[in-house]
Write the structure tokens for this entry.
Amino acid sequence: MGDYIVRATAANNQIRAFAATTKELVETARAAHNTSPVATAALGRLLTAGSMMGVMMKGEKDILTLQIKAGGPLEGITVTADSKGNVKGYVGNPNVILHANDKGKLDVAGAVGVGFMNVIKDMGMKEPYVGQTVLQTSEIAEDLTYYFATSEQVPSSVGLGVLMEKDNTVKQAGGFIIQLMPFTDDEVINKLEENLKKVTSVTSLLEEGHTPESLLKLILDGFDVEIMETVPTQFHCNCSKERVEKALISVGKKEIKEMIDDGKEIEADTIIISTGATAKYLGLEDEKKYAGMGVSACATCDKSIRKGRVRDERRFCKSGSCNAGYFSGRLRAQSGRDCKKSKRNGRSRNKGDGISGALYYGIYLFRLVLAGVASCACKGRTSQT
């Protein structure tokens, strides 16, 4: 059976529990992003937590985003999940290599560094719920435990683990979240604490052959455990060309020209403007000047012109399931607008090079950046579309 999440209750509904096995999910993320072992471990832990926390949400369209912003060489982690078990995410620097920690294990805390965690829940309201906590250990599981206790006032225990093979593929991955409901009896709390002391490693238990169900029965030994639901979970990117097109079109021709007319310089490696099924130029002088030298309105022609250069000038979601182009390169904003400095280090894994009806503005031309308008959380940025 593939990866899945189990939702359960125990002690006459005084405890709610989640457990997951996520080996395939984390391996898919590792292969998509080509992450180092320590980056895989950090990303895998947060993906596992995100998948379980996403299932906690009730609305069909609810979205959970976990962001770790810290000063370590990993340069942060972002994970997005929905209530159906779909999850995606990325690390800022997938190539981090560190020595093992003093316990001989992957130094996730050293890779993450000192910083804070954001938990963002978009439940279809006017504004999303945003909770923020300072990282306590940077090991992720302990930090989420602290988040639940301080931001949601729910006493919890979180266990997460990723075990790597010698060839750097994922051998085991999974985790659990145990939470106490209000007015839980002291006897239940004491018994649960004793049980949790016996759990030393999630991956060791998975290596012994434990499933999410048996993992919960071990942790909740002595309680009447009732399995409520089993939910498949997977690494899944829901980005699409259509989503990006809508985001770009929403900017509007007038606003784009106003940004240019301001005369304040903004640079980007590549800008993609979706104009529909047919090319619609913006009426800019430089469109003619740089035609064929960075400006193109022909997806077919552009494919041959840029053959072999797509990895540098056009970035795509690395999951292999997403054909949506998005803004990339080093964006350097020199105006007071909402442009921000940002690194895009993605590499295309897609064979298709063209987006019909798009204008490609190369670095030769542009004094324009639409920073953060469209992006992809499975590669590099939380989607704002």
User: Anything to note?
Assistant: Confidence is low (pLDDT under 50) at residues 303-385.
